[in-house]
C-alpha cells in the first residue's frame, strides 16, 4: 500500500473514532442532564404540600369571558391568581413579567407560571381561519403560519397555545367546523402534524417555541344535530378510523398537551373518560404530556350526570388523568381532601404535578422564569412586514374558485365602474374571523379596501352596504338598483359575520342569513355580471347563488391580509388554487354529507325509485370535497401503476401525467383516492390517500408520483384487528374527489398487521 493511502486511512479512522467518542460524550451529557432534571423535579415534588400541588394543577383566567352556568368558578380572588400553576389570557411582555414576578415571589417554592392563550390562527398578524387554510392543502404553509404565530405569541410572553384544533367535522351546522381542517382524517392528520411542528419550531431552549395543544379529544365534532356541546354517539370503528386519526398524528408529531372535549363518547363525558384518556392516549399511544381540561369541563361532569358534587367531579377527572383544571377551581378546592381521605392516590396527583412541572422545565422556566417576557423582543416581532407577507400568501392560497362561467374572472383593473355590495365587504372584524387573539380590525385590510387599492385610477369603485347577515332590514337593497345602472360588474361580499361561526354558534339552516337572499334576488334582477365573494366559517347551502351567479369565490375569513388577497385573485395577479376541505351541501337537510360515505345496498341511481336518495333534492353535493377551479385548466392522463398485482407488503407506485392545458400559469392539487371494491366489511366509496401540489406554466406537463403501501390498503376488520385483505382496489386521481380518472390493481395476499401504523401521511414523516 502506498504511504499516502495509508496516512489518509489512518486519518479517516481517527476522525471516525473522534466523532464516535464525541457523540458518546454528548449522549452521556444528555443522559446526565435529564437525570439531573428528573431529580430536580422529584425534589420539588417532595417539598410540596398537597395544597401547593393543587395550585399547580389549577389554571385561572384573566379574561372576562363569562364562565357559563358555573357560579363563581373563576374568581381569581378566591384562589389567588399568583398561586395558580398557569394563567389563561395573560399576555404582553411587561404584563407577563409582572405576573411572573408575583407568582415566583408569591409562592413558597418560587415555581414559575405558564401563560396560555387561544392562538388559533395567528396572534397579532392573523392568518386565514383553519378551515380556510386547510383549503390550501399545503402542510408546509400551515407549518410556516403556525411558526409565525408562535414567534409573535412567544414574543408577547406566551408559553402555550390551545391549538391546533384537530376535530374532524362532517356536519356544518356545528359552528366549530371553522376551527379545524374539515371532514377528512388524512388531510386533517397532515395539517395536525404540520401545525404542531410549526408551533414547536426548533424546540426549547429557543424562546420562540410554544407548547401546542391538540383538541378537543375526541369526537367533539361528531356532536349530534350539529349542536355544540352535544353528545357524540359513534362506533368504535368510526372513532378509530376518523376521529382519532388526527390526534394520533399530533401525538406522533410531538404535541405537548391534549384538551378533552365537552362531549361524551359512549355515555362517558370526555373529562372523565379514563378509557380514552388513560388507556388509549397514555397507555396505547404513550402520550407523556399534559392533559388540560376545557373551560370548566371538570365541573360540567355534574350537569352531565356522572358526579353530584365538585369533589366527585374532581376525583373522576384526575383519575382519568386530566392534569390541569381550567377555571372551575375544583381541583384547587377538592384535591387535597381527596388525597387525605384516600379517595385519590398520592401517585395520581404526583403524576399530574410531575407532567406540569416537566413542561415548565422543558421551556427553561426554572432557570429563568422571565425568558419569554422580553419587552424589547416584543417590540420587534409583532406584525412585521414578512409576517404580513406570509399572511397574504396564505390568504391567496386559501381562496377556492367555486364557479367561473364564461371566464368572468379575473376582472380587468381598468373597468369603468365597479359596484361593491354587502356589509361584509367593509367589515374588518369579520375579515379576521373568530378566535383572533390580539388581531385588530384596524390593522386588517377589508375586501372593499383591497379592491380600491388594486384597481387603476380610471375605475370608479362605488360601495353600497345594502344588506347585513345580522339584520333582516332590506331597506338598503333599493339603493343597489340605482348604483348599478351604469356598472360594469358587481362584486357582492356575502356570507356570515365572524360571530356566526365558532364556539356556541350552531345553526339550523345553512343559507345566507339576514336579508342577503333578498339582496341576491335583487342582484340577479339587475342583469349585470355578478361576482360573489363568500365570507363564512362553514360550508353554506347556496343553490340559488350557484344557479344564477356566474362567478363565486369562497374566501372564508382570511385574516389581516384578507382584502389584498381577495383583490389579488379577483384581478388575476394570483391564480386561485384552493380546494374544498369539506363538502358543500345543497340543503341543510343533507348533513352530515361527506366524501368517504358508504355505498349502501341501494346506491343512488337514476332508475330505481327505492334507492338511497331524496325526493325533494339531488343527493349529490353542491360542491364536492376537493373541488376548486383555476383560471387555467389541467388535463390528466390515465393513472399508471408500477404493478397490477402485488403482495400485501409490497409498495405500489402510481403515476399520472398532468398538463396545464390553459393560458395561464397555475397551481394544481393532484388528489389520489382509494377504494377497496370488496372486503370483509364495507369500505368508504373513496378515501383520500395522497395529494401533491404542482405549479405549471401554460402548456407545461409533469408526472406526479405517489407511493402506496400496506398502510393505505389496511382496514380494521369486524373484530377491529388491523388486516390487509386481498382484493381489487380502485385508485382515482384528479383535481377533485369527483374525478372518474381511475385504474385498478389487486392485492393478492392477506395478512394481519402489527401496530397501528403511522397516522402521519408518508410524505410528511420524519
Ligand atoms: C373553550 C373552548 O372549547 C376551547 O377550545 C378553548 O381553548 C378554551 N375555551 C379556552 O379559551
From TrEMBL:
Residues 668-737 form the Fibronectin type III-like domain. Transmembrane segments: none annotated. The keyword Signal applies. It catalyses: Hydrolysis of terminal, non-reducing beta-D-glucosyl residues with release of beta-D-glucose. Keywords: Glycosidase, Hydrolase, Signal. One of its GO terms (biological process) is glucan catabolic process. It is an enzyme of class 3 (hydrolase). The keyword Lipid metabolism does not apply. Its EC number is 3.2.1.21. GO terms for molecular function: beta-glucosidase activity. Belongs to the glycosyl hydrolase 3 family. This is beta-glucosidase. The lineage of its organism: Bacteria, Pseudomonadati, Pseudomonadota, Gammaproteobacteria, Pseudomonadales.
Amino acid at each position: 500500500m502506498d504511504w499516502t493511502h495509508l496516512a489518509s486511512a489512518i486519518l479517516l479512522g481517527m476522525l471516525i473514532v473522534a466523532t464516535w467518542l464525541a457523540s458518546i460524550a454528548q449522549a452521556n451529557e444528555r443522559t446526565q442532564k435529564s437525570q439531573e432534571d428528573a431529580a430536580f423535579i422529584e425534589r420539588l415534588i417532595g417539598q410540596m404540600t398537597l395544597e401547593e400541588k393543587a395550585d399547580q394543577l389549577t389554571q385561572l383566567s384573566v379574561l372576562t369571558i363569562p364562565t357559563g352556568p358555573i357560579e363563581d368558578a373563576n374568581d381569581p380572588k378566591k384562589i389567588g391568581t399568583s398561586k395558580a400553576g398557569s394563567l389563561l389570557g395573560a399576555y404582553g411582555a411587561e404584563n407577563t413579567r409582572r405576573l411572573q414576578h408575583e407568582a415566583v415571589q408569591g409562592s413558597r417554592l418560587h415555581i414559575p407560571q405558564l401563560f396560555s392563550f387561544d392562538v388559533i390562527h395567528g396572534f397579532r398578524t392573523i392568518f386565514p381561519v383553519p378551515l380556510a387554510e386547510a383549503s390550501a392543502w399545503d402542510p408546509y404553509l400551515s407549518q410556516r403560519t403556525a411558526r409565525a404565530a408562535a414567534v409573535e405569541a412567544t414574543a408577547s410572553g406566551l408559553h402555550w397555545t390551545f391549538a391546533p384544533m384537530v376535530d374532524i367535522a362532517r356536519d356544518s351546522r356545528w359552528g366549530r367546523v371553522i376551527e379545524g381542517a374539515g371532514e377528512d382524517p388524512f388531510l386533517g392528520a397532515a395539517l395536525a402534524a404540520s401545525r404542531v411542528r410549526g408551533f414547536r419550531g426548533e424546540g426549547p431552549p429557543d424562546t420562540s417555541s410554544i407548547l401546542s395543544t391538540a383538541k378537543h379529544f375526541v369526537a367533539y365534532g361528531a356532536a349530534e344535530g350539529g349542536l355544540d356541546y352535544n353528545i357524540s354517539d359513534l362506533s368504535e370503528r368510526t372513532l378509530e378510523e376518523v376521529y382519532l386519526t388526527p390526534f394520533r398524528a399530533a401525538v406522533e408529531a410531538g404535541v405537548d398537551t391534549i384538551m378533552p372535549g365537552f362531549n361524551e363518547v359512549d355515555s362517558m363525558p370526555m373529562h372523565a373518560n379514563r378509557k380514552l384518556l388513560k388507556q388509549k392516549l397514555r397507555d396505547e399511544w404513550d402520550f407523556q404530556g399534559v392533559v388540560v381540561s376545557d373551560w370548566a369541563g371538570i365541573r360540567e361532569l355534574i350537569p352531565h350526570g356522572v358526579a353530584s358534587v365538585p369533589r366527585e367531579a374532581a376525583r373522576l377527572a384526575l383519575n382519568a388523568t386530566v392534569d390541569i383544571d381550567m377555571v372551575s377551581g375544583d381541583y384547587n378546592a377538592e384535591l387535597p381532601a381527596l388525597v387525605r381521605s384516600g379517595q385519590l392516590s398520592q401517585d395520581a396527583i404526583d403524576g399530574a404535578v410531575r407532567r406540569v412541572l416537566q413542561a415548565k422545565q422543558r421551556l427553561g422556566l426554572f432557570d429563568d422564569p422571565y425568558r419569554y417576557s422580553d419587552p424589547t423582543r416584543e417590540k420587534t416581532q409583532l406584525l412585521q412586514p414578512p409576517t404580513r407577507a406570509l399572511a397574504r400568501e396564505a390568504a391567496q392560497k386559501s381562496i377556492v374558485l367555486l364557479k367561473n362561467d364564461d371566464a368572468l374572472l379575473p376582472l380587468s383593473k381598468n373597468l369603468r365602474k365597479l359596484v361593491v355590495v354587502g356589509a361584509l365587504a367593509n367589515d374588518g372584524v369579520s375579515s379576521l374571523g373568530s378566535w383572533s387573539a390580539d388581531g385588530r380590525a384596524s390593522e386588517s385590510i377589508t375586501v372593499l379596501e383591497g379592491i380600491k387599492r388594486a384597481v387603476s385610477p380610471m375605475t370608479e369603485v362605488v360601495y353600497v352596504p345594502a344588506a347585513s347577515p345580522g339584520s333582516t332590514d332590506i331597506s338598503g337593497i333599493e339603493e343597489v338598483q340605482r348604483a348599478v345602472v351604469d356598472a360594469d360588474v358587481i362584486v357582492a361580499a356575502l356570507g356570515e359575520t365572524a360571530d356566526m361561526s365558532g364556539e356556541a354558534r350552531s345553526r339550523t339552516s345553512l343559507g345566507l342569513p339576514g336579508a342577503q337572499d333578498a339582496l341576491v334576488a335583487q342582484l340577479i334582477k339587475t342583469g349585470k355580471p355578478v361576482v360573489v365573494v363568500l365570507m363564512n366559517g362553514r360550508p353554506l347551502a347556496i343553490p340559488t347563488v350557484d344557479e344564477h351567479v356566474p362567478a363565486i369565490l369562497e374566501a372564508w375569513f382570511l385574516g389581516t391580509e384578507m382584502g389584498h388577497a381577495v383583490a389579488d385573485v379577483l384581478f388575476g395577479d394570483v391564480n386561485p388554487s384552493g380546494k374544498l376541505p369539506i363538502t358543500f351541501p345543497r340543503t341543510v337537510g343533507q348533513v352530515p354529507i361527506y366524501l368517504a360515505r358508504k355505498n349502501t345496498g341501494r346506491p343512488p341511481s337514476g332508475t330505481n325509485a327505492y334507492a338511497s336518495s331524496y325526493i325533494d333534492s339531488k343527493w349529490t353535493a353542491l360542491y364536492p370535497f376537493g373541488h376548486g377551479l383555476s383560471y387555467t385548466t389541467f388535463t390528466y392522463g390515465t393513472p399508471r401503476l408500477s404493478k397490477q398485482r402485488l403482495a400485501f407488503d409490497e409498495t405500489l407506485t402510481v403515476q399520472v401525467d398532468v398538463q396545464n392545458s390553459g393560458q395561464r400559469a397555475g397551481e394544481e392539487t393532484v388528489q389520489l383516492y382509494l377504494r377497496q371494491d370488496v372486503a370483509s366489511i364495507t369500505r368508504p366509496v373513496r378515501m383520500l390517500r395522497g395529494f401533491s401540489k404542482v405549479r405549471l406554466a401554460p402548456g407545461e406537463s409533469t408526472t406526479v408520483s405517489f407511493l402506496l403501501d400496506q398502510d393505505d390498503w389496511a382496514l380494521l376488520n369486524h373484530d377491529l384487528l388491523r388486516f390487509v385483505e386481498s382484493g381489487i382496489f380502485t385508485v382515482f386521481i384528479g383535481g377533485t374527489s369527483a374525478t372518474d380518472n381511475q385504474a385498478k390493481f389487486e392485492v393478492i395476499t392477506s395478512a394481519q398487521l402489527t401496530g397501528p401504523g403511522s397516522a402521519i401521511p408518508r410524505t410528511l414523516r420524519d
